[in-house]
Each structure stands twice: as C-alpha cells, then as structure tokens.
Amino acid sequence: DAQRDVSGITEKVRDARVKEIREDIRELIPQLYDGLQRVKKIVLDLKVFARDEQEERTEADIKDILERTIMIVLKAIGRKVEVVREYGAVPTVPCHAQRISQVFMNILMNAAQVVPEDAGMVKVRTYCDEKYAYVDITDNGPGIAEKDMARVFEPFFTTKPVGQGTGLGLSISYEIIKKHGGDIRVSSRLGEGTTLTVALLLAG
C-alpha cells in the first residue's frame, strides 16, 4: 500500500511537472518567434550594410521616392500619423533609388513610432542649394537626450524599448548616404522632437 501511495504521488508530481513544462513552452513560443524575427531583420540589414556598390546610379526624383516610402510607412505602423509635406523645387539626383528609399524608410519609421498616439505629426521638407538636395524629416516625439546625440548613428544603439528596434536603421542609413557622397545629421531637444537632415549630391 505504501509503495502504491508513493507511486501515485510520484505520478501526480510527474503529471503536474509535465503540465507546467507545457505551459512554459506555450508562453515561450511567441517570445522565441519575436526573437527570430529580430535576428532575421538584423541579418537582412547587415547584408545591405556590407553590400558592394555594383549597380549603376540613375537620376531619381526625391519627391517620388518620399511619397512611395511615406505610403508604405503609414500602412506599416497601423495607426494615424499626420504627415505634413513641404516640398520645395529640387532637381533629380544621381542615386540608387532603392537604397535612398531605405534611408527614408528607416528615418520615417523611427519618427512614426515615437510620436504621440493621439497627435502624432511628421513633417517632410525638401530644398536645395547649388551642391546638395536636402530632406528634413521632423517629428514631434520626445526628442533625444544630449548625452545620446553622439551615438545616434552607432550600430546597435537604440533608445527604444527592448524588442522594438535593432539599432541598425540609422547606422545603415548613415553608411548609405556617405557612399553617395552626401551627409546625414540629427538635431534634437528633449520634449521638442527630432529632425534628421539628409543631404544628397546634385548631378554634375
């Protein structure tokens, strides 16, 4: 009888343990999936980061690239964000349009993710001088602390919560623009939003 009781208790403990393990696995699966998705995105970003400049550049309309990218971002974020456009007259620029679109995608996505949910606003402005075409992308988000400003373009640096960013978007954007002979810079104050300015060389 004692042996039967011990066997019964052992079986109950085993069943309880199996049930607990199953529940743990059920909870872990979404976390593992999210982790794999982040790893996948990092790998894809790094491929772009290391890709050779093989294809030829073509003359592209910055406004067209921006409009296509804005539409993609607005659909991707799944919530309302007001986009204010201030397009000045800008000539076409020699570039890899897909890569420049990726730069704008990274900046616009960052901006759309940090603006207030009830009053999010992103302003896109284009203008030029004799040498460069400029694109300012300004958000009304929380801004960036002064101590973090120097690290904005560092690989894997992010101020977003864990799981919401790989920290590669702006560093890859920086490399893409530099390879185009242009420049990218950031200005921000806490509580006053952030502006990313992209400068692209004009033809000739």
Shape: elongated
Distance between the termini: 96 Å
Percentage of residues in helical conformation: 40-55%
> What structural class should be given to the helix and strand makeup?
alpha+beta
Low-confidence stretches: none
Looking across the biggest beta sheet, what order are the strands in? Answer: 2-4-5-7-6
Number of helices: 4
| Rg from Cα | 24 Å
Number of strand elements:
7
H and E string: HEHEEHEEHEE
- Mean of residue pLDDT? 79
Largest sheet: 5 strands, mixed
Strand percentage lies at: 15-25%
Short account of what is shown:
The protein has helices at 2-50, 62-77, 97-114, 169-179; strands at 58-60, 82-87, 93-95, 121-128, 132-139, 183-188, 194-201.
Describe the SSE topology.
Elements: H1 2-50, E1 58-60, H2 62-77, E2 82-87, E3 93-95, H3 97-114, E4 121-128, E5 132-139, H4 169-179, E6 183-188, E7 194-201
Parallel strand pairs: 2-4
Antiparallel strand pairs: 1-3, 4-5, 5-7, 6-7
What does this structure look like?
With 204 residues, the protein is α+β, with helices and mostly antiparallel strands. The chain has 4 helices and 7 strands. The mean pLDDT is 79. α1 packs parallel to α4 and α2 crosses α3 (97-114). The relative contact order is 0.14. The chain has a 5-stranded mixed sheet. 46% of the residues lie in helices and 21% in strands. It has helices at residues 2-50, 62-77, 97-114, 169-179; strands at 58-60, 82-87, 93-95, 121-128, 132-139, 183-188, 194-201.
